[in-house]
Amino acid sequence: MPTLHMTTPPAQATPTLVDAPIIIVGSGFAAWQLVKAMRRQNAPQPILLITADDGCDYNKPDLSHIFTRQTKADSMVRADAATLAAELNIEILTQTRVTALEPKQHLLHTASATLRYSKLVLAVGAHSVIPPLPDDAAQHCMTLNSLQDYRQHAARLQQMPSVLIVGGGLIGTELGMDAALAGKQVIMTDLAPRLLARQLPALISQALQQQMQEHGVRFKLGCTLTALQRSDSGEWAITFSDGSRYQAAEILCTAGLRPEITLAQRAGLHTDRGIVTDAYLATSEEDIFALGDCAQVAGEVYAYLQPILLCAAALAKTLLGQPTAVRIPTQSVRVKTPLLPLQIAGTLASHLASEEVGTQQIVLSDPKGMTLWQLDAEQKRCGFVAAGEHQKQAMAMLKMLGQPFEIAPH
């Protein structure tokens, strides 16, 4: 049932375009950062936020530590919808799904109402990709892309003694390590031949895998699942394409995220990998913007928090009458793998061979950690991975990008 949290009485008549609120669809990190950025500028404009879930604010990266911290879903909530509505002087419609848009008329439809907007921001996020799985396993596997997912699966996740993790990317690796450190038996599988194949050079990927293997994680990489059959006891019998067999209590799918573009497509907005926008976050339709995981900004989809924060700050100014293009500088990404903490930045030859991009890699290591520098064809630093204690120097390393690599004389 839709719930409206408001600080002012709702209008009794359909507002004119001038009087209509700015409507934000979504209540994830991007949406809340946008609202906060607008209110920091003392903007009086009415704002209505519409969300399909309960609208609470939480720290999504904490999902990567639910096993070792034995996290309760409710403990992750920083503020509920009613509190946020009061603090930020906005209206929030929770448990409400937007069903259609009419861009030319500036109208938005839900199951129970038609609303007019002055400007519309789509911050609808991304959904978990579940690859084709043998038998009927896809119906039973869990995903962990939101607090809502965790609420649904918390008991199963915390109680399971063993798990098959399908997907060896960033989230799968973080969760696999956390589950292993919490004493669970972990099997990880991916079509790629190694962990984080899209993000990490082979040397670092192999070092990370070794650390996880030493803590009991078993890997089936570069092969496919051929059978997933559930026994009467509820345990899964797992068969891989190389004939090897395993068992696990649960299946957790971490095969990646796909920007949510369905609503935008139905409304005729230009979409590609995400909802296509220019540097001002404007879509192909007047007064409609996209922000966060769902947006493809000037050709790029930004899934990490810091770029989304910069996008929200720029869009807040644009919505308030000061058109501001977003500029995303090179930033580092922290991989939450405590056995081998990592910081990644810039352009790296990861799953591609170095010679394909005309670069080479320089590795500097000591007992405390390792740094891998990626060099471009002009021998300039274009990216790095810092591992172990070296990752504490990531900010200083960022400033070195673009500079020639010179080996200090002995």
Automatic annotation (TrEMBL):
The UniProt record lists the keyword Ribosomal protein: no
Domain spans labelled FAD/NAD(P)-binding: 22-296
Record keywords, A-Z: Cytoplasm, FAD, Flavoprotein, NAD, Oxidoreductase
EC number per UniProt: 1.18.1.-
Xref: InterPro entries: FAD-bd_OxRdtase, FAD/NAD-bd_sf, FAD/NAD-binding_dom, Rbx-bd
UniProt protein name: NADH:flavorubredoxin reductase NorW
Domain of life: Bacteria
NCBIfam families xref list: PRK04965.1
Entries under Pfam families matching the protein: Pyr_redox_2 (PF07992), Rbx_binding (PF18113)
Record SUPFAM superfamilies: FAD/NAD(P)-binding domain (SSF51905)
Subcellular location: Cytoplasm
Cofactor(s) named in the record: FAD
Family: Belongs to the FAD-dependent oxidoreductase family.
Species the sequence originates in: Plesiomonas shigelloides (Aeromonas shigelloides)
GO molecular function, one term: oxidoreductase activity
Enzyme class: oxidoreductase
Residue intervals of the Rubredoxin binding domain: 325-401
GO cellular component: cytoplasm
Principal location class: cytoplasm
